[in-house]
Amino acid sequence: MEEGKLYPSDEGTPQGGVVSPILANVYLHHALDLWMEKVVKPRCRGAVEIIRYADDFVICVQYKDEAVKILSALKERLAKFNLELAEDKTRLIEFGRFAKQNAEAKDQRAATFNFLGFTHFIDKTRKGGFKLGRTTDRKKLRMKLKEMNEWLKASRNMSAIADIWKTLSAKLRGHFQYFGVSGNYRALRKFEKLTKRMILKWLNRRSQKKSFNWVSFIAYLERHPLPTTKIHHDFYTNFART
């Protein structure tokens, strides 16, 4: 369906369709996952792991020479299933415990990668050890703020404030529950702060006369609270406990 019109198709999956991730999981389980487990891993001398969600995946390889071979073999494997890698999203990078030191020795910055809406980077623990850091991908953050602004603009005169507040709470709660991972508090707080500014702006556009300033808006939020920044997935604490 495009713009309300049906276009019959004999192959492929609809972009953004609900069924697309399900079919991708079924197809790639055979085309990729089983191949990695039964063919690739047994032939590698180092550790190899794949993390996949639908058609997005990251392959972690211990040795660079094996990573190069796997990338080449991967292209050939996918071609057998009429699939190909997205070249603009495919990179071979050094990442891990010694990657930052190696990059600094070359007067370079350590590589980062984006996966499932997060930018993953090399971080360190309080004791100076290696830790995987995560923050909301900047492009994803801008997109989410743009979507929120467009929704507020379209909804300001179409619904009662109580109805807007109910949907707005669900949108904020969903954002915090997905992106609320350890180490991502700053990005969550930025999203909350900028969203509140947009709410104030569009509430005041509901009538020609402004009804809120920042002080009165904060007072209104105290009476009608919205979900606030919260870390829902504390990876490090849970890992330490296990």
The average pLDDT score comes to 90
Q: Provide the spatial order of strands within the biggest beta sheet.
A: 3-4-5
- What's the total helix number? 8
SSE topology string: HEEHHEEEHHHHH
Counted beta strands: 5
Unreliable residue runs: none
* Apparent shape: flat
Beta fraction of the residues? 5-15%
Task: Give an overview in words.
The strands form two sheets. A three-stranded antiparallel sheet has the order 3-4-5. Strands 1-2 form a two-stranded antiparallel sheet. The protein contains eight helices and five strands. It is flat and about 65 Å long. With 242 residues, it is mostly helical. The chain has helices spanning 19-40, 64-79, 99-105, 138-155, 161-179, 185-204, 214-223, 235-241, and strands at 48-53, 56-61, 113-115, 118-124, 130-136. The mean pLDDT is 90. The longest helix has 22 residues, at 19-40.
Which keywords apply here?
242 residues, mainly alpha, three-stranded antiparallel sheet, two-stranded antiparallel ribbon, 8 helices, 5 strands, flat
Structure in a nutshell:
With 242 residues, this protein is mainly α.
Detail the topology: elements first, then pairings.
Blueprint: H1 19-40, E1 48-53, E2 56-61, H2 64-79, H3 99-105, E3 113-115, E4 118-124, E5 130-136, H4 138-155, H5 161-179, H6 185-204, H7 214-223, H8 235-241
Antiparallel strand pairs: 1-2, 3-4, 4-5
